[in-house]
């Protein structure tokens, strides 16, 4: 974006700004496109089916989210929407829905989930938008895993008090390397025994346990992202 | 509860167990009453409008939640329900909805929120039930605050990097006293300036900030409870 640049409005954007929010020509609007920070813009044309904004000046620089992915097994619609919204608020660069051995979902509505991530960014005054990927199989993702990306996974059946290594020795998450990370949340039924064995054997995987009570998958997602942000992120 | 003790079923319980779950006489059921742990029971009478369970043996001892209260300003219905459900899962002894200067809610449906807390306990295999109080004014609660209970409050406008004292010097939450605590989450519009001043001046109050992005009130509640559990609770 640049000062003086005009931005055409689509029909539903015009409806929201002029029909719902009752803005008129001359009204101020905050704009972001995910790349150029936040800009103050002015309504320079307002119609029923369209309109135009004109950029005036940058009000905030572009911020980058932590280089964190969230991998989760989709659950019921409302709770899946919730996970996407909360992940976007807490600060995640990419959301990757995964199919595990015990995941029921065969497909997801990627466009709808992406729209939730956009709305969360608008609500929270974020300048970036969390990217939502299509559903992928967990085993294939792990087979092609980028070597430098660490993976924190939540294992209800993991008996250690807090954190542990694949060989069972505990290691504090605060000592873990910075840089690219992912957080993996299993489905409501947990991981299969084969998945657990495979995950525990991965050199880049860090098992964690989230307290003594059983958490729903959506609660576990928010709690795990908070834990990561506190230890390794920008909180 | 005691071995051999019978428990009569109300109409909706009978409908759920025999109509929805299709249990019959002789089926096993896990029971808890919030005081006596978890018991294995058997269906000894199954009817359309009622029935009877008979306790066999205790399967788990009674667990106590951490002595933690959650104070929050009610927001929209779905998000308020969500806060109650998540607080019960993460582990809170009591939920106290509060009216602050910027809270819209005049009243809440205490019975409905309590039912959500019961359902969360059932879902999560908990043996205790989080108690939901009626709506109360924050200023009155603070005026009669129990001296030994610490209060963590989330202040979006608080400029310190992480935690701070009323006089501005940071103090790590890990050094905070154990024992009774409360976590306070403000309304979507934040606390009023008068409330902020009062909270920061309280000797038992610990301000925290939850990352650089603005969180919705329900996200802030889950993140703050996770933070408390990690530093001061039983996680």
UniProtKB/TrEMBL annotation, chains A, B:
Top-rank taxon: Bacteria
InterPro entries linked to this entry: Alpha/beta_knot_MTases, PUA-like_sf, RsmE, RsmE_MTase_dom, RsmE_PUA-like, tRNA_m1G_MTases_N
Residues annotated as domain Ribosomal RNA small subunit methyltransferase E PUA-like: 9-50
Catalytic activity: uridine(1498) in 16S rRNA + S-adenosyl-L-methionine = N(3)-methyluridine(1498) in 16S rRNA + S-adenosyl-L-homocysteine + H(+)
A single GO BP: rRNA base methylation
Domain Ribosomal RNA small subunit methyltransferase E methyltransferase: from-to ranges: 66-229
Pfam families, alphabetized: Methyltrans_RNA, PUA_4
Family stated for the protein in its record: Belongs to the RNA methyltransferase RsmE family.
Function summary: Specifically methylates the N3 position of the uracil ring of uridine 1498 (m3U1498) in 16S rRNA. Acts on the fully assembled 30S ribosomal subunit.
Alphabetical list of NCBIfam families matching this protein: PRK11713.3-5 (NF008696), RsmE family RNA methyltransferase (TIGR00046)
Protein name: Ribosomal RNA small subunit methyltransferase E
Source organism (scientific name): Pseudooceanicola algae
GN (gene name): rsmE
């Amino acid at each position: 974006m640049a000062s003086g640049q005009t931005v055409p409005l689509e029909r539903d954007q015009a409806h929201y700004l002029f029909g719902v929010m009752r803005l008129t020509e001359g009204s101020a609007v905050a704009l972001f496109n995910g790349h150029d920070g936040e800009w103050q813009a002015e309504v320079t044309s307002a119609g029923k089916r369209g309109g135009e904004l004109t950029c005036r000046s940058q009000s905030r620089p572009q911020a980058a989210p932590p280089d964190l992915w969230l991998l989760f097994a989709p659950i019921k619609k409302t709770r899946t929407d919730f996970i996407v919204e909360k992940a976007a608020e807490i600060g995640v660069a990419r959301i990757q829905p995964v199919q595990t051995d015990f995941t029921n979902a065969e497909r997801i509505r990627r466009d709808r989930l992406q729209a939730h991530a956009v709305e969360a960014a608008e609500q929270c005054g974020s300048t970036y938008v969390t990217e939502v990927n299509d559903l992928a199989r967990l085993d294939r993702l792990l087979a092609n895993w980028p070597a430098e990306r660490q993976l924190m996974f939540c294992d209800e059946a993991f008996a250690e008090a807090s954190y542990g290594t694949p060989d069972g020795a505990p290691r504090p998450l605060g000592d873990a390397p910075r840089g690219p990370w992912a957080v993996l949340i299993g489905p409501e039924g947990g991981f299969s025994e084969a998945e657990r064995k495979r995950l525990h054997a991965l050199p880049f995987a860090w098992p964690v346990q989230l307290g003594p009570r059983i958490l729903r998958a959506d609660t576990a997602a928010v709690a795990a992202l908070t834990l990561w942000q506190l230890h390794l992120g920008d909180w």
